[in-house]
Automatic annotation (TrEMBL), chain A:
Organism: Histidinibacterium aquaticum
Name of the protein in its database record: ABC transporter permease
UniProt entry tagged with the keyword Phosphoprotein: no
Classification of source organism: Bacteria, Pseudomonadati, Pseudomonadota, Alphaproteobacteria, Rhodobacterales
Subcellular location: Cell membrane
Alphabetical GO biological process terms: transmembrane transport
InterPro entries on file: ABC_transp_perm/SBD, MetI-like, MetI-like_sf
Membrane among keywords: yes
Annotated Pfam families: BPD_transp_1
Automatic annotation (TrEMBL), chain B:
GO molecular function, one term: ATP binding
Pfam families per record: ABC_tran
PANTHER family registered for this protein in UniProt: OSMOPROTECTANT IMPORT ATP-BINDING PROTEIN OSMV (PTHR43117:SF4)
Biological processes, Gene Ontology terms: quaternary ammonium group transport
Family of the protein in this entry: Belongs to the ABC transporter superfamily.
PROSITE patterns according to UniProt: ABC_TRANSPORTER_1, ABC_TRANSPORTER_2
Coiled coil region boundaries: none
ABC transporter domain sequence ranges: 2-236
Gene3D superfamilies, A to Z: P-loop containing nucleotide triphosphate hydrolases
Source superkingdom: Bacteria
Key words, A-Z: ATP-binding, Nucleotide-binding, Transport
Species for this entry: Histidinibacterium aquaticum
Protein name, per record: ABC transporter ATP-binding protein
């Protein structure tokens, strides 16, 4: 992980600078802007757009996680097994429905703004979390489950004390995939007036200002890289812990 | 005839196989036995050039293996590995016909050959031809693996721990089958194993490898009776050596005139079987028969005399 | 299939079936269709009973209810499938009867559309169908036949004109040729970029499979491409292709320009490379190591090994990569509408600008349908390329 030591702070510093002090980058982006046009997006603070962008992604992912993990727990119990094919179909359809189409279809019902984006991100994010939760919960070492039963833990205790902690790294991988997809997809939300960094990109598209497009794209891309990296670290730490406690 | 001539393989400066030379007659089974890391598999893989020798060469019927392109050489040499390595997406027939197809045999010839081999391995062609490997038992998969290696009537059959994945009972049967088929076809086989029992049971000649060198090469009886080093003695299994030796001698070799009480043993049983029968039923001798007719007896004395030779 | 049937025999009622029935009953009370004075204003909801005279609505409502009830018994998946078909038939009947009846007293510019109640019932019955099919577990060919039957029925209904009074169909009839152009363009974007990405991605995947070092640099680079948000990717392509179009002689003649088709197409291709290459690498590595060793040992050349062992065994994974790309590109191609690249996105964004819901639907519904059908067809192909033994086992 040698490059990580240098790259990680570099990515975070660059990201902070782009969001908090965008005017520093004026000379960099200037050649890309049309003559006479503004170089740095100033119609709205990049910080507030970033926060709103991250907030939307966080809310949608939290909802998708809650629903997916609950569903996965339900269908891996004997009582809920009948719902397994149905849950698969629903989460699969969530990812087959194009997010732009979902946005467009929910606008009539929810109006312009954050609502349609939340729905689209939620639906699109379900599948990876659900599939990974199912995988995590149904591939636990049988010996461990037997031991937990042997110790006299009841079903609820087994779930909370043994199954969920063991499945957590795999579930987290699903959440990571979902978040990274959502960070990019959220930009599309700005086509229906959600406040995201997509606003900067769309402004660039509408005025043929590549400087805007790159600015918005770069910030979103760097967020994706940073979040991906942070969650990977967290997973590795959790996986190490569960390995360390399972060996003695 | 297979001649291995001072063949050497060096990995990162250390020899994995160090100037090994040996000769195997056509129509015999040579078993290369050794612990893991002894270089036995590397030696085998240098014969069909899955590993290129650092120096030395192998000659098959006088022709150096280095004179042909590796993939063309391999089509003339059968190769069987542990865990069979069958192609999971091909039927039994396509698996067996793989090398003939590489050699562009006509279709009907391949088909006839596949059926012939399936019959030889007592697998009904009608029933097994179109099955997939996943639909076979472990023993059947292994037989198909051997049949595939024999399909193009190769000059030589190389087998790397071919029975390693089988459970003991099926393994014993597979070993017997191999012996029988080898006799029937007159194939030349070089087989690698870590199991001395298997080496003694199957080999016409046994080659013992240790740390990249050939430490002893001889008939099973020689290996058991006169191990060349403490390592070989240890491989042969110390205390059990007399019993190993007895298991190599058929009753027909020591049968003497006279009679004995109790059930008779066929003459192709080993002295080990006779010893077991004596101890089990409290006899000092057992009668020996040939095709149902008594031809004499084998006494405990005689058995002891053969076992002492090795001491 | 046997095990599912016996496993569920304990509860006679299918739990999902019960859920569908409950949700379906609730949805019956929501507004089934809307009537609006013109194509822009919001409509007023009309309940399922009131869309047409009772003599016409009754058979439809009965069919929907019966469909939901037939979805209940756990042990007869065929009956559940029949129920779903019956229910969907009822929905279409209600739509076909309700639209002209409501238009009669609505005025010249009046528009009728399906409302939330219809969409909920449609979703519920489709899920019932999917659930019954999952229980029946039909083979890939059977699934193909079923898909063809459903599409055939849909085409027949649209062609018959029974749904023409609906607002979205009126949007269609006033833009027929634009719709056909958009469809052609959307297909070109989605399938063309898929084919291009496959042609570029397969060789790269095969090289990466062979060469560990190349894999170590190529895959991270392609992953990085994917972190660029799709919207920005389209945006970045505009100046690049614009510059090429202006400077390279003859480039504009073959359609390379800063706006329109070319930047959208290129963005989709770049976006598709990671799934194609990554799945090719994973697929080629899927062959059991012993089978590869055996192939080498029997004298196959590297090319023969690739064609006879690695590719056939990796095909399901490789096709899964193409499935991901196809479904993703059908969706992303909508964004092309934002940069003048054509396709269904044109209608979606026009509709959003004019707040004309039915124009949005005209773009979004075919996109969703195309994505769903493509996903199902690709799943069938993946299934067909799976080795037979593992398919049955």
């Amino acid at each position: 992980m040698r490059p990580g030591i240098v790259l990680r702070p570099a990515v975070i510093l660059l990201l902070l600078a782009l969001v908090l002090q965008p005017e520093w980058f004026e000379p960099v982006f200037a050649p890309l802007a049309p003559e006479g046009a503004p170089v740095i997006y100033a119609r709205s603070s990049l910080l507030s757009l970033s926060l709103s962008h991250l907030g939307l992604v966080a809310a949608a992912t939290a909802a998708a996680t809650l629903v997916s993990v609950t569903l996965a727990i339900l269908v891996t119990r004997e009582a809920g097994a009948a719902f397994r094919p149905l849950s698969r179909t629903v989460t699969n359809m969530g990812q087959t429905f194009p997010p732009v189409a979902v946005l467009a279809l929910t606008v009539p019902a929810l109006g312009f703004g954050a609502g349609p984006t939340l729905v689209a991100l939620f639906l699109y994010g379900l599948l990876p979390i659900f599939e990974n939760s199912i995988a995590g919960l149904s591939t636990l070492p049988p010996a461990t489950i037997e031991a937990a039963r042997g110790l006299g833990l009841n079903r609820r205790q087994r779930l909370i004390q043994v199954e969920l902690p063991l499945a957590l790294p795999v579930i987290l991988t699903g959440i990571r995939l979902s978040v990274v997809i959502s960070l990019g997809t959220a930009t599309i939300g700005s086509t229906v007036a959600a406040r995201t960094l997509g606003e900067v990109i769309i402004a660039g598209l509408l005025t043929s200002n590549t400087a805007y497009v790159l600015q918005g794209g770069l910030i979103v891309g760097l967020f994706a890289v940073a979040v991906y990296d942070a969650l990977t670290q967290l997973e590795a730490r959790l996986a190490r812990r569960s390995r360390a406690t399972s060996t003695p | 005839m297979i001649e291995i001539d001072r063949i050497t393989k060096v990995y990162n400066g250390a020899p994995a196989v160090d100037a090994v030379s040996m000769t195997a007659e056509s129509g015999t089974i040579t078993v290369i036995v050794g612990t893991s890391g002894s270089g036995k598999t590397t030696l085998l893989r240098m014969i069909n050039r899955l590993e290129e020798p650092t120096s030395g060469e192998v000659r098959i019927n006088g022709e150096s293996t280095l004179s042909t392109k590796p993939h063309l050489l391999r089509r003339r040499i059968g190769y069987v590995i542990q865990g069979h390595g069958l192609f999971p997406h091909h039927t039994v027939a396509r698996n067996i016909g793989a090398v003939p197809r590489l050699l562009n045999w006509p279709k009907d010839k391949i088909r006839a050959r596949v059926d012939e081999l399936l019959t030889l391995f007592s697998m009904e062609p009608e029933q097994f031809r179109d099955r997939f490997p996943a639909e076979l038992s472990g023993g059947q998969q292994q037989r198909v693996g051997v049949a595939r290696a024999l399909a193009s009537r190769p000059d030589l059959l190389l087998m790397d721990e071919p029975f390693g994945a089988l459970d003991p009972i099926i393994r014993a049967r597979a070993q017997d089958d191999l012996r029988q088929i080898q006799r029937a076809l007159g194939s030349t086989i070089m087989l690698v194993t870590h199991d001395m029992e298997e080496a003694i049971r199957l080999g016409d000649r046994v080659a013992v490898m240790d740390e990249g060198s050939l430490v002893q090469h001889g008939s099973p009886a020689e290996i058991v009776a006169r191990p060349a080093s403490p390592f070989v003695a240890d491989m042969v299994g110390g205390m059990e050596r007399p019993l190993r030796l007895l298991s190599l001698v058929p009753l027909s070799e020591v049968v003497e005139d006279g009679d004995a009480p109790g059930d008779a043993l066929p003459e192709d049983c080993s002295l080990r079987d006779a010893l077991s029968a004596c101890l089990w039923t409290g006899r000092t001798a057992v009668p020996v028969e040939r095709e149902g007719a008594l031809i004499g007896r084998v006494t405990l004395e005689a058995i002891r005399a053969r076992a002492e030779l090795s001491a | 299939m046997q095990t599912i049937a016996t496993g569920d025999a304990r509860h006679r009622v299918s739990p999902p079936g019960l859920l569908f029935a409950a949700l379906g009953l609730a949805a019956l009370f929501g507004p089934f269709m809307t009537l609006a004075a013109n194509r822009i204003v919001a409509g007023e909801g009309v309940s399922i009973w009131a869309v047409a005279p009772p003599s016409l609505t009754l058979p439809g409502v009965v069919a929907v209810l019966l469909g939901l009830v037939l979805g209940l018994p756990a042990v007869w998946p065929r009956l559940r499938l029949l129920g779903a078909v019956l229910g969907l038939g009822g929905l279409l009947w209600l739509l076909a009867q309700g639209a002209p009846a409501m238009l009669e007293d609505g005025g010249d510019y009046a528009r009728v559309s399906p409302a939330i109640g219809f969409w909920c019932l449609l979703t519920i019955l489709m899920l019932l169908m999917a659930d019954a099919l999952a229980q029946l577990a039909p083979g890939p060919l059977m699934r193909g036949a079923l898909l063809a039957a459903v599409l055939g029925a849909l085409a027949l209904i649209l062609w018959s004109g029974a749904l023409s009074p609906l607002s979205v169909m009126q949007e269609y009839s006033s833009r027929r040729s634009a719709f056909i152009d958009a469809t052609a363009r959307h297909l070109q974007l989605a399938f063309g970029s898929l084919a291009t990405a496959a042609v570029i991605g397969f060789p790269i995947g095969i090289l990466c499979h062979r060469d560990q070092r190349l894999r170590g640099t190529t895959l991270p680079a392609l992953s990085f491409l994917q972190t660029i948000p799709s919207l920005a990717m389209f945006g970045i392509m505009i100046p690049i292709l614009g510059w090429i179009g202006d400077t390279v002689p003859g480039a504009q003649a073959i359609g390379i320009a800063g706006i329109g088709f070319a930047p959208a197409f290129l963005a989709l291709v770049l976006y598709s490379l990671l799934p194609v290459v990554a799945n090719t690498v994973t697929g080629l590595a899927a062959a059991p190591p012993t089978a590869i060793e055996a192939a080498r040992g029997m004298g196959m050349t590297p090319g023969q090994r690739l064609l006879r062992v690695e590719l056939p065994l990796g095909m399901p994974v490789i096709l899964t990569g193409l499935r991901i790309v196809l479904v993703q590109n059908i969706g992303l191609a909508v964004i092309a509408g934002l940069i003048g690249g054509g396709g269904y996105g044109t209608f979606v964004f026009q509709g959003l600008n004019q707040t004309a819901t039915d124009l949005i639907l005209l773009g979004a519904l075919p996109t969703v349908a195309l994505a769903l059908v493509s996903a199902i067809v690709m799943d069938i192909l993946v299934e067909l390329t799976r080795p037979k033994a593992t398919r049955t086992a």
